Structure formats: C-alpha cells, structure tokens
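Session log. Operator J.P. requested a structure for one protein chain; no other inputs attached. Running the standard single-chain path with token output.
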Amino acid sequence: MLRQWATNVMRSKVEPMKEVARMVRSHIEGIVAWTQTRQTNGFLEAINGLFQAAKRKARGYGNFSTIRTVVFLLAGKLDFSKINPHAA
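Structure written below.
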C-alpha cells in the first residue's frame, strides 16, 4: 500500500508531497522492517555510547584489550564501594 501511495503521489502536482514520496521510497526497506519487528536502533546506540565513554576513559591506551576491559567495567555498572569505601 505504501508503494502504491508513493506512486500516486508522484503522479500528482504537489511538489512537497513528491519530496515525501521520494524519501519514503528511499527508506522503504527500513520502514517495512520496522512495521514487522517494531525494533529500533536504540540498543545499538546505547552500545556505541558505551564504546565512546570507554575510549574517553581509556585515552592513551593503545591496546584493544584494555579498552574492552573498560567497556565491560562501564557496562557492568559494578559497585566497588563494598570493597573500597573511597570509590566514587
């Protein structure tokens, strides 16, 4: 139905709606995938945020395993106050 709508709009003379139809056509696969799964990329964005925070905290370390360890520490949200009361 969405493809048919876009085709009908492209035949019209309303230029702003034609721009919308072009955008819908260019993103049709993602629109259909979302309607079927209702999943967004929020989870991936959250993981990306963890990596960005780890890169900032592990600045100066060139070894990937160190950055990976920092990512795990950030993602785990560990409470170190039980073993070190001065930990923030």
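Operator note: The radius of gyration is 23 Å.
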